[in-house]
Specification:
The chain is globular, with a radius of gyration of 18 Å. Strand 16 (about 195-200) and strand 17 form a beta hairpin. The model has no long low-confidence stretch (mean pLDDT about 100). It is an all-beta fold. It has strands spanning about 10, 15-20, 30-40, 50-65, 70-75, 80-85, 85-90, 95-100, 105, 115-120, 135, 145, 150-155, 165-175, 190-195, 195-200, 205-210, 215, 225-230, 235-240. The chain contains no helices and 20 strands. Strands 3, 4, 5, 6, 7, 8, 9, 10 and 11 form a 9-stranded antiparallel β-sheet that branches. An 8-stranded antiparallel β-sheet has the order 1-2-18-15-20-14-13-12, with no helix packed on it. It has a 3-stranded antiparallel β-sheet with strand order 17-16-19, with no helix packed on it. The protein binds (2S)-amino(carbamoylamino)ethanoic acid and manganese (II) ion. Manganese (II) ion binds near residues 183, 185, 189 and 223. It comes from Hymenobacter saemangeumensis.
Amino acid sequence: MEISALTRSVVTRNHAIIAPDGYINSNVPGWTGCTTNVIINEQMGARLCQTIITLTAAGRLQGQTKASQIFFYVVQGQITVAAGGQEKTLQTGQFVYVPVGSDYLFTNPGEGTQLLTFHKVYEPLEGHATPGLLFGEKDDSKAPVYMNDEALRIQELLPNELGFDIAVNIFTYQPGGRLPMVETHIMEHGLLYLQGEAIYMLDQQWYPVKKGDSIWMAPYCQQWAASIGKEPSVYIYYKNVNRFPT
Ligand code: UGY
Ligand code: MN
């Protein structure tokens, strides 16, 4: 039997690794028939919220975005969403971006459907329209090579427009692929591994990570990663973008 006093999860002032073994469920008003795990939140010093929701067949998420926009991504399974006068059944790899001030209703999930959410208080930008509701999906044919390295590909899921103050990208590393440099930047990240294994360096600490693990990187958390194992490693990540650095 494994010793239950051990975990790969780590929480520091500037970064966190959250592995599923330590999840404790939260009750979120309007989200029923599901377990919700709040992975990243302002309580840890973050300016985004990241949750993972696992639904039963009776699951239902009903609510209204207020100050925060919410990006919902189907990690596995399927679910029907009604928002902004539209209705659509989302499958694994598909997403809906729900802008501020929108009602949303998710119903009819497959048993065990898992959703990832990123929330951030929306900062409007004068002269640029607030984004509307948006559907989309993971599509490897829309993932260009990153920094001239054939082992790395990034798909940007949201339009690269100044109206958006967040980016959500899917980053695929072929086996042996690694970041070409240690990044040191003002932008914050929330991240979920969708596939494979990797070594992540955060503030000069080294962590083995794998599918199902989440990472929080505060602004200026130094970061580097390399894929390990025989299959590509893939993560979806959030980044705050496009606003004046106050
Ligand atoms: O967009 C980014 O900053 C990205 N390259 N960072 C990361 O994957 N840790
Ligand atoms: Mn980065």
